[in-house]
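>> received
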Amino acid sequence: MDDTSDHLHRIDALLARPAPAVARLPADGDLSTAHRRLVEALRPRWGSARVLAAGGFVDPSLDDDSGLPLAAPFGGRLAELCGWAVGGRWIGCGIVRDNDGGGSHLVAVTARRADRATAFLLAGEAEEGADVPGERWVRRLAAVTGRPQSRQWPVDWSSAEARLGTALPADYRRLAEHFGPGTFAGFLDLSLPGPPPGRDDPFPQFLCLVEQALRLAELAAADPGIADLYRPHRLHPAPGGLLQWADSVQADQFYWLTEGADPNRWPVVARDEDGDSCARFDGSTAEFVHRLLTDHRHPFSVAELIDRPDFEPYEPHDCDDPFEDRRLP
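>> returned
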């Protein structure tokens, strides 16, 4: 077994232990070469590594959310360190100087990693008894985006749900009223049931959940080829059909799978533009959005691409016309 294969085997054994943990990796020859080969061997598993220390200097910007727990056990003895965020832990490998300064050795290290999806909880949130299913995730989303004060966007829920023939998830109703039209992290647009009551200016089709759902169902009924695009699922109002509630700037689509009588228990189904990738999420609408913004393990996560989650409101009449039909095939 060559050095790199042995190192991978030892890292697998390290991962079977609870974090934090450190393992010394025996290596013959040049340590820098062995370290570089190990980083390249781990790339197919976890992607490109973050360089946390190089040439004996530790990145001074490191914090708990960027890999500091990996560097902490070694004090000032680090020569090289690369790391990956993998689930609920950090994983790294590097070169560490001995305590007596007489030599160096190759190490692998793991550390606990905080779940960013629960890092911005409101004070007192742990108390039981939220009156609306998913309400806590709405409050978390409002807190993490810096918008704790509701926008109070008015919605005629009776009319919207009557036209759809179904009630809608309670936490989605809170989301729509709290945020109104806008974009989360410049990525996800939340569809609203329709314009506020009494509004006269045009309301873009891509924002209108009810109009888009009815129009798509009509198109699918007239053209089996459109219905085939959504297999193995069907479209609402078919029992258990897909009902879209958001889309992304990359043309990903986010639906409820309307199975069961209780809309608060509907899972979320996320599809990419071509429908080639489809992921199911068994949680509330607000939790889905929160984790998309904060949790890199989320299948459509943008957490690694943004400094901090935000929400940018806009008025419907400010939307560009070319996007009006972007949610339809």
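>> The chain is about 25% helix and 20% strand.
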